[in-house]
Amino acid sequence: MKRREFIGSAATTFAALSASPLSIVNEKQNAVNNEPKTVVSVIQSEFTSGSPESNPYHPNFDINLFKKEIVQQNIDNVLKLLNIAGERKSDIALTTEDIKGIYSLIMDIERPELLKDFAETIPGNLTEKFGAIAKKYNMYIITSFIEKDNNNLYNSAVLLNREGKIEGVYRKVQLPVPESWVLTPGNDFPVFKTDFANIGIAICYDMIFPEIIRILALNGADMIFIPTGGYGWTEDLGESMLKVRAADNMVWIAMAKSSTLFGAGRSAVVNPLGQIIADAGYEQNYVLTTYIDPKSTWIQPETSYGSVLTGVPNMRLRLNLERRPEIYKTLIDKNPKVLAKDTNLKLIHQKNKEELLKVVKKLKEQYKKESQIKEDRIGFRRDIL
What we know:
Largest sheet: 7 strands, mixed
CATH topology: Nitrilase/N-carbamoyl-D-aminoacid amidohydrolase
Radius of gyration: 22 Å
Distance between the termini: 47 Å
Structural class: alpha/beta
CATH superfamily: Carbon-nitrogen hydrolase
Number of helices: 11
CATH class: Alpha Beta
């Protein structure tokens, strides 16, 4: 595919609020050049707040209200949005990170049993529910939640196939500080073969580290799916990072960002040229659906300057042929020069547990105050602590 064709026919996008599901044609082909297209849906769901007593940091916290008003409502909301994706004949649907909305429990290291009780096994009740949706609509689903496996907890994403069966699991590798207090990091970068492309998965903080996306691309991923609650240090950096990660590796990227009031970030699909071809904006409980060809990449004309000089019009292949991994050893140096002057520098949780408990105590005091702020003080409440 020539560059001009790539840009012109990269995607046709459909988006609508959950209240008004969109009907699209069953024919999954581009009307212009008759190429097969994959229908990708990205779920931008909102986390429910619940009553004050459903907040784990409220003085009168009620665990039953947390189950009913937070966990169950979040699950039901995502299932409703997935049904919309299925009605649109999606080939694959991506949800956000932590679909149960239990991230606030990660901070409460003094009550570790809470997080463990609400974590899910794989397979388990949650994968059965999502598997039923996948089978009903004959679509793949990628969803993310806190997983428990024996005594370990992970921030995981599971891929369900068109039959509703578990195709694979990815465990978040780069854990941000709060998660590293209680979760175990993953150590693998699996790439899953589907009937439309080879796909990889990264979760939230993974995308901050370019090595993660690079490895998935080198492992053969045509498209990378990112469920996330975060977006980047700033709005502009988050968007730029998403574009650059795609363009650096010449891969497609789909990101499902949870919607938060006043929060930065938005769900999107990006092509291998780093162009956002579908964007959910700042809508809440939004289903973004787009036609793409995830196996397509930037193919320069054979008569172009670069193609003539290299003999390789495929830019993804060309850039990988030009890599010099033998001189990239600094990338795996545990003590690079940038840290040479701070050899004793450690994160708080790496020092000792006493220091960590001091931080947690301050956080809990703050969260307790915030949990009692009245509804009419708009802008001061937190949906996720």
